[in-house]
Write a structure and sequence with these properties.
With 253 residues, the chain is α/β, with parallel strands linked by helices. The chain has one domain: NAD(P)-binding Rossmann-like Domain (Rossmann fold, 3-Layer(aba) Sandwich). It is built from eight helices and seven strands. Strands 3-2-1-4-5-6-7 form a seven-stranded parallel β-sheet, sandwiched between helices. Strand 2, helix 2 and strand 3 form a beta-alpha-beta unit. The chain is globular and about 50 Å long. It starts with 6 loop residues before the first strand and ends in an 8-residue tail after the last strand.
């Protein structure tokens, strides 16, 4: 198992890509501290992991809260004795044109997509440095490079997350590897929420599928497999990199 006896924190783990990453990491032997807003979904995930023989704990809370992020790191050390990696996966769309977007939505979007990574990594990096090894995976988006209608906060925050990942790779090498994943249209609740920004949401989803060279939407498991690769020793010489996983959409640009 590629992550045997390693401890990871995964945010936004209760659904979509975060859930798929949690299940994949657990299958590969990782011990998990899981974060999300829904206690019900989190408990269901923990139960599914336990049925497969995995070890995980779920802590519902708001990733925008510095104290909550501190708790996640403390619990990882308390329950598993160490911390080997972090997957910053929690995300928010914050839809609306810039001139109609209220400042609270703008700030909350940046809070969820960028500030939460700052709060968590500020606590987690020193712990991983103490162990002289660690892995950070930031789940960004092709929206960091490609514009979508009525997504100003989302596009800007995901671009910031990519830049942050490259900078952290520089400061925390050689012991901690930091890489970013930039998914395209993955069939998750967030994608369907995103489609609402288009005049015809159903048509937008259909067009997104057609825009891929592989002619299908991504599945959460596709992203989980990439996250597993980056978390494992298979990627031991990879840091500061950005991985687009979009079925080939960006190849058209």
């Amino acid at each position: 198992m590629k992550l045997h006896n390693q401890t990871f924190i995964i945010t936004g783990a209760s659904s979509g890509m975060g859930k798929a990453i949690a299940l994949e990491f657990a299958h590969q032997g990782a011990h998990l501290v899981l974060s999300g807003r829904s206690e019900e979904k989190g408990n269901e995930l923990v139960s599914a992991i336990q049925k497969r023989g995995g070890h995980s704990f779920y802590f519902p809370g708001n990733v925008n809260d510095p104290d909550y992020n501190k708790l996640l790191v403390m619990e990882a050390e308390k329950k598993f004795g160490k911390l080997d990696g972090v997957v910053c996966n929690a995300g928010m769309l914050g839809l609306g044109k810039l001139t109609v977007l209220d400042k609270e939505t703008w700030r909350e979007t940046f809070g969820t997509n960028v500030d939460a990574a700052f709060f968590l990594l500020r606590q987690a990096l020193p712990v991983m440095e103490k162990n002289t090894r660690g892995v950070v995976i930031l789940n960004a988006s092709i929206a960091a490079f490609k514009s979508f209608p009525e997504h100003p906060a989302y596009c800007a925050s995901k671009a910031a997350l990519v830049a942050l990942g490259k900078q952290l790779a520089l400061d925390y090498a050689p012991h901690i590897r930091v890489n970013s994943i930039c998914p395209g249209p993955v069939d998750t609740p967030l994608l369907h929420d995103s489609a609402v920004a288009f005049p015809e949401p159903d048509k937008a989803l259909e067009n997104a599928e057609k825009a891929t060279l592989l002619k299908r939407l991504g599945q959460p498991q596709d992203v989980a497999k990439l996250a597993l690769f980056l978390a494992s020793e298979d990627a031991s010489w990879i840091t500061g990199s950005v991985f687009t996983i979009d079925g080939g959409i960006m190849a058209r640009s």
